[in-house]
Design brief:
Blueprint (H helix, E strand, L loop, with lengths): L2 E5 L12 E8 L4 E9 L6 E4 L1 H5 L8 E7 L2 E15 L1 H5 L5 E13 L5 E3 L9 E5 L4 E5 L2
Parallel strand pairs: 3-8, 4-7
Antiparallel strand pairs: 1-10, 2-3, 2-6, 5-6, 6-7, 9-10
């Protein structure tokens, strides 16, 4: 079931309007999960999450695969862990229905310090979808090809 013409959202009062999906991040090794809004980021190669979410998922952060990541603030060390990302039907979620419309297993997620929001990048996530972002109207759609 595609997500059609959903409005861009702000994740904080000072942030710009962006295409945002509501997700469930699951760490398969513990079965723990978190509901988190996630920005669709066409400029990001990978999916990334704030490092502090790792503890809530039962992840020993530094047991992941370390890698340097270039950010707007320089180079940071991210730790990669394999997670499952599920996407809620965004419009239905706001109406009180928690329908999962997409499930991606074995997604590499880079847990990064000082990252304010979950980012859905192009390699593991967006590469599976058709994304239409209508910036003048501040609407977006996501569907399988």
């Amino acid at each position: 079931m595609p997500i059609n013409n959903f409005p861009f959202l702000r994740l904080s009062p000072s942030s710009p309007l962006r295409p945002v999906l509501f997700t469930k991040i699951v760490y398969p090794n513990t079965g723990l999960m978190l509901d988190e809004p996630a920005i669709i980021d066409t400029g990001a190669d990978i999916c990334a999450a704030p490092a502090e979410l790792a503890e809530d998922l039962g992840i020993d952060l530094e047991r992941g695969i370390p890698k340097p990541v270039s950010t707007g603030n320089g180079v940071a060390v991210a730790f990669t862990h394999i997670c499952r990302i599920e996407v809620y039907h965004t419009a239905n979620l706001l109406k009180g229905c928690s329908d999962i419309v997409y499930k991606m297993v074995d997604i590499s997620v880079d847990f990064m310090p000082d990252l304010p929001f979950v980012l859905l990048g192009t390699k593991d996530f967006l590469g599976q979808f058709c994304l239409i972002a209508d910036y003048p109207s501040k609407l977006f759609s996501v569907k399988h090809p």
